[in-house]
Write a sequence for this structure.
């Protein structure tokens, strides 16, 4: 008998066939068992092998999600929610088969409460769709993980990105949500008030739960006023350590940066080539300030002084939208720019996050480790939060090389944890980082996580094989 | 048999006696059964009758908290954690008797990481003690619920207060915590990195759990840089509605107020008399801005223009510390100033929170309701969040008057919930607001809360009779 909350083997094929048959009858063309579609729904940009679900069903309403979950629960087969497929740690793999619920058709914006600075959306709404819809309101949704991810998926993985240093992560920007739990009921986690002390924080329980506690079917997200003025600029540094030290002092001085991104010299070279830019090929910080004209000028100047203290500069900044866009386009292109460094290789994106005081040391040691291994691995990071990414470019057919890269990532995670950091700042656990959960959290915290999982999903049907194992 | 997570009757007196005897042997003078001390530990500033614990024990370390919980678990008797006794909804009442664990002696500041803008503290550290200790660092801890509460208690009730509009609530300011759970183990909820996507958000699960899931034994809290410049000022308005409308536009315009507090005319009269001030006896907003000299001047002027649009003003503001302190002293004295309006009466503090767009309407209806009932009930609020308090001054010996006040509070809560608000913005549920949980959250969310409680505290020994009933 499995422990409550956990599935440890694929269900019996006949049971799966029965359940899929029931769903086929109900959903017709909206249920598919085509191999290509199934594999696409287990798509993962890691080196974790694809494990396809047994079927994909396109849900169009919360009531349909309930129906699907009820069928899955009745037959005890897994359910894996799918948004846009941009997760990075194997979150979407159907480890034990089952049903992938594609939520991309639930993409309606249900309400924009401009006066309350919030919006109510279905989970398949992507951040770009929301921001396009908001264009004439003077408001925007600040969380930007790079990919045009769905808001349901971003909430499920507690995503963040370049603006988090100022606007927080999904944890801070989801006011309330609705979720279908393992028994098929619909939970509303909170009212729409900005704060509440009325009971357990169910919103934050579902944010970051990666589909293992329920399927998010609606979100109320905070919006921000578009700043009157925005300045953006880039600042070269003599070393990654100097750049990281400047970041630390900027944060400690309370300079309210909206974005502060580090690119190491390899990353800058990749971006220059790919985006046809002429940035100096040294470690570089890209920054953005939000406020009024006077304020962004004042803050930009203060940052320039800090950069100079560490041998960085000049800090050149611009306020015109088209010039800012060009600068940030370079940042947004880093993934593709990096892949172009080594055509044919796979980029294995990984992230850690440490207290800001340890950031320079952590990046520095990681960089030395990259050099020692001989890996081609650019570094880019949301360094204002102490969060950075490494993208080893790996020939996945070369077992020796894969082993080197895997060992490198393990050392990087262990280094971050030893510095009171986390194995993932924003990508989530999925199956890729489960093995680090014990070292990071300790046995009692993992026991609590397992008991939460057991309480909310006793049959273990909700995205099994993710976040925590049954121990 | 009780449902997992819930105790529904007092334990057998002989069992209690045995457990208290064991603890007495272990803790000697640090365990007391004196009636005065027991009643003081069930102290509540509501009209909920005092229900004293069977004993009070002063814990001095996490290991001692573990020992006490283990004895309580072995005998299945309740545990009620106690910080400073400033909670408002009967949180500290020993509904089913048991042991009050007084944590006030666990008041050491374990680390101040100035470079990371965080501090690690024991739960009995009060906010004032922390801020006094920080005085020479240029940093401060922003959450100010009025009372000099303990940080453990503030986390347990998800407290906030005047600065929340800018700095958030305890939910946003606790980075990590340690808690002793019902089985006596110690859970560490998070590393010290600023953000993480590594699993369920245990920090936010314990914040706001009011001692019902575990006893907080250590907290890592965020600190802020003391602003270079602070301006504070007061602004009279012709009506509460006009003041609330000005608040709404201020928030919508994205003016980054650090504090924006509303006092109605009755509250201003009380403050004038008590604190010997000469404020105009009309509805009043008190504001504070944090930033640089130029910035606070710019924002103060922008607010003044908004106030004028609604017939308010003049907005007079000051930047000298002593003048600012005098202004905020008036705000901090409101509780005692209000009690002085009717000597001998008890002030029953209650709070609700609504989306900002509904704030003017909610306060206006509440004010009309106060007039219709004939209650003496000043209004004061953290209106930037949509949160406000009413303090009916009640002769608790007069049953008819108590009934009128109770019915008034019920209507106020129902009104807030109907406006997509919450029955408590910052005081917490305790036993006083349990009856509103179903109306606010709905049955499926309450079922999830009950199952979380059952999973983490199957015996129901952790502060039973609070937040949710067994249904």
């Amino acid at each position: 008998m499995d422990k409550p909350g956990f599935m440890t083997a694929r269900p019996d094929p006949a049971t799966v066939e029965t359940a899929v048959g029931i769903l086929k009858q109900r959903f017709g063309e909206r249920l598919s068992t085509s191999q290509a579609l199934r594999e696409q729904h287990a798509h993962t940009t890691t080196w974790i092998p694809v494990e396809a679900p047994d079927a994909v069903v396109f849900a169009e309403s919360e009531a349909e999600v309930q129906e699907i979950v009820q069928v899955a629960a009745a037959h005890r087969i897994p359910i894996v929610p799918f948004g846009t497929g941009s997760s990075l740690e194997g979150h979407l793999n159907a480890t034990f088969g089952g049903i992938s619920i594609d939520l991309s058709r639930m993409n309606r914006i249900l309400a924009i409460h401009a006066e309350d600075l919030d919006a109510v959306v279905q989970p398949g709404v992507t951040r770009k769709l929301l921001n396009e819809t908001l264009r004439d309101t003077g408001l925007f949704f600040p969380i930007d993980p790079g990919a045009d991810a769905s808001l349901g998926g971003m909430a499920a993985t507690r995503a963040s990105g370049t603006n988090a240093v100022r606007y927080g992560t999904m944890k801070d920007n989801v006011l309330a949500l609705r979720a279908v739990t393992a028994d098929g009921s619909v939970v509303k986690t909170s009212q729409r008030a900005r704060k509440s002390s009325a009971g357990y924080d169910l919103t934050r329980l579902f944010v970051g739960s990666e589909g293992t506690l329920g399927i998010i079917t609606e979100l109320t997200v905070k919006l921000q006023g578009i700043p009157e003025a925005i300045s953006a600029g880039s600042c070269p540094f003599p070393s990654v350590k100097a750049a990281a030290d400047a970041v630390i002092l900027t944060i400690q001085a309370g300079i309210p940066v909206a974005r502060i991104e580090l690119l190491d010299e390899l990353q800058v070279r990749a971006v220059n080539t790919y985006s046809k830019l002429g940035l100096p090929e040294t470690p570089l910080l890209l920054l953005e300030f939000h406020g009024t004209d006077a304020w962004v000028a004042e803050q930009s100047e203060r940052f320039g002084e800090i950069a100079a203290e560490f041998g960085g500069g000049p800090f050149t900044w611009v306020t015109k939208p088209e010039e800012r866009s060009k600068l940030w386009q370079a940042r947004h292109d880093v993934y593709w720019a990096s892949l172009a460094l080594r055509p044919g290789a796979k980029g294995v994106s990984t992230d850690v996050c440490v207290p800001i005081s340890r950031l320079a040391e952590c990046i520095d040691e990681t960089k030395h480790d990259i050099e020692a291994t001989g890996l081609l691995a650019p570094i880019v990071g949301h360094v204002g939060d102490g969060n950075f990414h490494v993208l080893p470019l790996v020939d996945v057919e070369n077992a020796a090389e894969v082993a080197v890269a895997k060992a490198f990532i393990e050392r990087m995670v262990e280094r971050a944890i030893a510095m009171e950091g986390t194995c993932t700042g924003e990508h989530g656990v999925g199956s890729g980082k489960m093995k680090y959960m014990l070292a990071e959290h300790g046995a009692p915290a993992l026991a609590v996580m397992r008991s939460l999982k057991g309480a909310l999903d006793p049959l273990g049907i909700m995205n099994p094989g993710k976040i925590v194992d049954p121990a």
Q: What stands out?
A: The mean pLDDT of chain B is 95. Chain B touches chain A through 90 residues (CB under 8 Å). The domain at 109-225 of chain B is CATH 3.30.465.10 (Uridine Diphospho-n-acetylenolpyruvylglucosamine Reductase; domain 3). The longest strand of chain B covers residues 214-222.
